[in-house]
Amino acid sequence: MSKPITLYSHGTGPNPWKVDLILRELNIPYETEWMDFADLKKEPFESKVSPNGRVPAIHDPNTNITLWESGAIIEYLVATYDKSAALTYTSSPEKYHVSQWLHFQMSGQGPYFGQAAWFWKFHQEQLPSAKERYFEQVKRVFYVLDKALKGKTWLVGDKCTIADLSFVTWDGMAAKMGIEKNYPDYYAWNQRLVARPSVQKMLKDKEAAMAAGH
Amino acid sequence: MSKPITLYSHGTGPNPWKVDLILRELNIPYETEWMDFADLKKEPFESKVSPNGRVPAIHDPNTNITLWESGAIIEYLVATYDKSAALTYTSSPEKYHVSQWLHFQMSGQGPYFGQAAWFWKFHQEQLPSAKERYFEQVKRVFYVLDKALKGKTWLVGDKCTIADLSFVTWDGMAAKMGIEKNYPDYYAWNQRLVARPSVQKMLKDKEAAMAAGH
């Protein structure tokens, strides 16, 4: 490949940084186009990049694809650029178990953590029973991961894959809830992820992007 | 293949029927194991089938895989049994656009429609602002699909794929909200999906399963 991928991103949301992290891990050249939230749900972004009006999205000039949904982007990146399968598997059942955990991140962790953040931080009124509902759902996600990680270092097989990496950008929020230490196998896994140089650098750049108002 | 796949399912939830529908479309032999909700979030189901304690899940004795998360199961089924790519694409960018819409169904439609159903039907108290929030999110999903379908018959390329089929089992709920006709391209697409013999048969069997108390 020769030309850098454009990553449409935003400083605060966890999802663009999930894709950012995989781009770093695979040493894929990319440049970030910072989007204002106000510009996402209108033209030209909706027609030219994402009808869903959300980030992340990418445009890859090498293959001429425009793609949104972080899980689909990550699948595209490993299929196209991870030729040695450093972050995934090519054999069954491992490759499908990677997909299973990626889908759990997309449909379980992301939406529930997102709703928890909404009712705890952004909703127009305090709704204790809604806050409680999503606090319980966040704990359930920890419980599922903790249970799956008993006696294991990574979610699938013996290496860190996109399945593991996809969870880490949402976990910062959950750590603020102070409950991660109740799930020791989850916690140790999260610490292994956070210790990776790519994650360290991503977290630092995320902080800088937010400080810069992106 | 020789032996039927076991589909762990339940009568009421939309997600198991998503997998059921793809098994039908691909003429894959399968047998349904009906699960009680009470048995999902405990042993042996959590350790033997799904640590997430939810359905759908499958066991395929032909490849000896056990898998959960409806999106991952569907990806497995087409990769393993849809050799003529009847319901998907093998070329780029179409195959990634199928993945993109499947992920939107998993992370957008499913969770938001599910939260709407929760606050409208099951939550322990009436919370008008929470109900309103998810009603707006359901409308947003219709808006995105309606916009993407302008001038098109199916979401990706010129044929019905797993991307289209994955949305149909949740749409029954949304139809009850009486808003689908406000999104004419979405509505026409949904009518095309519902007219398929496999969808007709699935909806009939879902009704029978619920009547039988599954």
UniProtKB/TrEMBL annotation, chains A, B:
SUPFAM superfamilies: GST C-terminal domain-like, Thioredoxin-like
Keyword Ion transport: no
This enzyme's EC code(s): 2.5.1.18
Gene Ontology cellular component list: cytoplasm; nucleus
Residue intervals of the GST N-terminal domain: 3-85
InterPro entries with a match to the protein in the record: Glutathione-S-Trfase_C-like, Glutathione-S-Trfase_C_sf, Glutathione_S-Trfase, Glutathione_S-Trfase_N, GST_C, Thioredoxin-like_sf
Gene Ontology terms, MF aspect: glutathione transferase activity
Pfam families documented for this protein: GST_C, GST_N_2
CDD domains in the cross-refs: GST_N_Ure2p_like
UniProtKB keywords: Transferase
Gene3D superfamilies given in the database record: 1.20.1050.10, Glutaredoxin
Top-level division of the source organism's lineage: Eukaryota
Catalytic activity: RX + glutathione = an S-substituted glutathione + a halide anion + H(+)
GST C-terminal domain ranges (all copies): 91-212
Record-stated family: Belongs to the GST superfamily.
Purpose: Involved in the oxidative stress response and detoxification.
PANTHER family membership: GLUTATHIONE S-TRANSFERASE-RELATED, TRANSCRIPTIONAL REGULATOR URE2
Protein known as: glutathione transferase
Gene from which this protein is expressed: tpcF_1
